[in-house]
Amino acid sequence: MPSNSHFRRRTSRSLIDRFGYPHLLAGTLALVTATILLGVAAKATGSGLACQANWPQCDAGPFNLLPANLPSFYEWFHRFVAMFAGFAIIGSALAAWRSSSVDKRVTALVVLGMLLTPIQVTLGRETVTQYTMDILSLHFWTAVLIFSLFVVATVLVWQSTLTASHVTGALALGFVALPLHVALSPTDLGVVTEYTPTIQLLQYGVTLALLASPIVATMVGRWRLEDRRVVPLFSVSVVLAFAVAYLGRQAVMNFSSTLDVVYLAAVALLAIAFAAGLGLTRSASSA
């Protein structure tokens, strides 16, 4: 009979051979992104406390495994997608660990994501049983950390196909996402008069794009652009993007109106960094 190690090697090989590891990782990133946005939707609609505050069960069907109403369905569907995202994270990590063809940096990133997953699951349970702002914030930022790890890992596995034009595209995405983030944020500018669940979902979707774009630009720019000035500039834009994402949250803005000014200052600096990056990229491409 084949040994357990032989079975595990066959399993990891079949995952990579069947889907291709870059596609497997991209699919995992898509599931992580969907899980974050569904979690935002559940919180924004007040569905996080649906399912009669049960976890992991819900409030209907055999063993309370199904939702009883629409709010419960939102929470149930979030957990359903999160379950598949967790399986995909574990599968990606095990496949990378077992395959010698996967870059060791990628393996380290996805294994770290796998190790963070049970922490994230525990925090998800606590958002149902306790529902405090501290727990909600930890749950969100752990999800963002996992998302960022998989963005970096995905860029690494697609390195050979990425060109300087992808740097321009990533910077352009960030430049477009930035004013949208301001427009959708709960600032005192009066752009958004009511911070509805739809507005929150759109804002967090824009936030994820805003976080991913400078990461992609920094990594690909380092590989494909000869102008060395772009690397520190893009690296600063990553830090600024995370600052904008943090300061643009409703929980942070509600703390003090002064933080609105800090948020707008970070937005202005990030816009300058994106514009300068686009200028340098175009100059490097035309040279």
SS content category: mainly alpha
Largest sheet: none
Q: Kindly state the mean pLDDT as a whole number?
A: 86
The low-confidence runs, each spanning 5 or more residues with pLDDT under 50, are none
* DSSP strand content: under 5%
Helix percentage range: over 70%
Distance between the termini: 62 Å
Number of separate helices: 10
Order of helices and strands: HHHHHHHHHH
Number of domains: 2
Q: How large, in whole angstroms, is the Cα Rg? A: 21 Å
How many strands in all?
0
What is the molecular shape? Answer: flat
InterPro entries: COX15/CtaA_fam, COX15/CtaA_HemeA_synthase
GO molecular function: metal ion binding; oxidoreductase activity
Pfam families: COX15-CtaA
Subcellular location: Membrane
